[in-house]
Amino acid sequence: MHSFINQKNAANMARRLALVALPTLLILSPATGGGGVQAEPIVPAVISFGDSTTDVGNNNYLPGAVFKANYVPYGVNYDGHEPTGRFSDGKIVTDITAESLGFESSSPPYLSPDASGKSLLTGANFASAASSYLDDTAAMYDAITLTQQLKYYEEYQSKLAAVAGRRRARAILSGALYVVSTGTGDFIQNYYHNASLSRRYNVDQYCDLLVGAFSGFANKLYRMGARRIGVTSMPPLGCLPATIRLYGEGGRRGGCVERLNGDAENFNRKLNATVEALARRHSDLKIAIFDIYTPLRDLSEAPATQGFSEATKTCCRTGTAKTRVYLCNPAMAGMCRNASDFVYFDGVHPSEAANVVIADSMISAGISLVT
Ligand SMILES: *[C@@H]1O[C@H](CO)[C@@H](O)[C@H](O)[C@H]1NC(C)=O
Ligand SMILES: *[C@@H]1O[C@H](CO)[C@@H](O)[C@H](O)[C@H]1NC(C)=O
Ligand SMILES: *[C@@H]1O[C@H](CO)[C@@H](O)[C@H](O)[C@H]1NC(C)=O
């Protein structure tokens, strides 16, 4: 156990060093005058789109949303120890990367009353749990579709101009980091149990459809002013506790479902080609993939090397009904003794401790976007 803790501490230390080094590297600019290094964010704003991997509480404002994290034990390790709508015991990757970039915290959910006035200056978060590349998938769960997220973004642009003035708003929007993190739902909440879809498309064609949707979305963002876009890769779909339970050979006790991981790898190869094509097409666009597949896969295969003791079981108790194996069971508040020992907090979402590991790898991938 001691070596676990030491390794985890070492990882945290490395992260802190990286965080200190990043802004220092960038802010040796005239902006700081003679007054030394200032803890100023290295991008003016972060603007997030996607699903529960980035949703900081938008779904709490949607009466019909099927997936909400507005009950215990979600948020037990977050500031205030209360559920906020984040799908984890504590911080999600969005929070950790925002802090790493020098912000005090991540932007409030766009649908909350807090997303107004000065808070708009540092970005906005449009993500909605169960949203996906395909609007049909999102609509099945009454989540905010990507199409609607883009409409909100357009509305945000005018609100920002009202607060900051047109010229400054334009600078914020072109300097901002745009994060797109979604797609898991298109497989696990749709394709894998939707016979009409799997009859119409084989996996390869379905992946083409999804990366095509991403490409269309990224082009629209570009036309609306985005110049730095990071997109997450598909996570190892076959290593999620929920998919191991639903599709694994050995049920709960089995390892990762290789067939599903193969689908994620297929998607990721196509995403790579799509991102490279976007970069060639727009010479003034910085675009990169935040690889979450590799760190999550490594955590699933060798959790102990990074200080975790459990990678296939969930920390909270999930439900048993088909759509409920994904989330903590609201009727059973119990949870594991220490969420930091678990890679997954619920059936699909990592614990805060695992989110720290994922964010580390995103930060190193994202350096090209912010420098
Ligand atoms: C199957 O997928 C299509 C397209 O995404 C969707 O319109 C339909 O509602 C889905 N059906 C079921 C049973 O999930
Ligand atoms: C695509 O894959 C190649 C080979 O692994 C890699 O060198 C390149 O950086 C990747 N492109 C992106 C945009 O991630
Ligand atoms: C939980 O585990 C982590 C390391 O895995 C350790 O640092 C922490 O002290 C533990 N917390 C409690 C309350 O046992």
CATH fourth-tier homologous superfamily: SGNH hydrolase
Largest sheet: 5 strands, parallel
Total discrete domains: 1
Specify the structural class.
alpha/beta
Mean pLDDT figure:
90
Strand order of the largest sheet: 2-1-3-4-5
Query: How many β-strand stretches?
Result: 5
Helicity, as a percent range: 40-55%
Bound chemical compounds = 2-acetamido-2-deoxy-beta-D-glucopyranose
The CATH first-level class comes to Alpha Beta
Give an overview of the whole structure.
- Helix 1 runs parallel beside helix 12 and helix 8 runs parallel beside helix 10.
- The N terminus is likely disordered.
- The chain has 371 residues and is of the alpha/beta class.
- The chain is built from twelve helices and five strands.
- Helix 2 links the parallel strand 1 and strand 2.
- Helix content is 43%, strand content 6%.
- It starts with a helix and ends with a helix.
- It has a five-stranded parallel beta sheet, sandwiched between helices.
- It has one domain: SGNH hydrolase (Rossmann fold, 3-Layer(aba) Sandwich), CATH 3.40.50.1110.
- The structure holds 2-acetamido-2-deoxy-beta-D-glucopyranose (NAG) (3 copies).
- It holds the Pfam family Lipase_GDSL.
- It comes from Zizania palustris.
- This is GDSL esterase/lipase APG.
- Keywords: Signal.
- InterPro entries: GDSL, GDSL_lipolytic_enzyme, SGNH_plant_lipase-like.
